[in-house]
Every structure is written in C-alpha cells, then in structure tokens.
Amino acid sequence: MVHPIASMAGQPRSASLLQRFSHWLAETINHAWGNPGEEAQHRPPAIGVQPFSGEATRRRRR
Region entry Disordered: which residue ranges (predicted)? Predict the structure, then answer.
C-alpha cells in the first residue's frame, strides 16, 4: 500500500515529508476556502437598480 501523502500528483517521492505535508495542507485549505478570483467568475449578475448605460430614445413632450 502506498502512503497517501507520497502518492500525491506532482510531488516526487524523494520530497521530504515536511514538503509533501505542506503541499497537501495548502491544497486542502485552497479547496476548503475556495479561490476568490474563481468564485467571482461564477456569480450571477447583480439584481436591482443598475446605472443607465444606453442612449435615451424617448423624446420630451412639448
């Protein structure tokens, strides 16, 4: 049976235990808390009053 920390992708088996553990810990925290940059890409559009961004097509009455 291969040790779970030793079989992590991208980590050579010769890496020290501390290096492998720190890599595992960083990936675990990133997965648990998420990445704010990626989260912002998946937000729905804002709902409510939005600033006017087009041209007025209606004329004033005289």
Answer: 35-62
Q: Quick count: other Cβ atoms within 10 Å of Cβ 20? A: 19
Check if the beta carbon of residue 23 is closer than 8 Å to that of residue 8. Answer: yes
Report the C-alpha gap between 11 and 14 in whole angstroms: 8
Q: Which pair of structure tokens corresponds to residue 5? A: 């920390």
Torsion, Cα 45 51 56 61, to 10 degrees, reads: 120
Query: How many other C-beta atoms lie within 10 A of the C-beta of residue 10?
Result: 7
Mean pLDDT of 45-55: 76
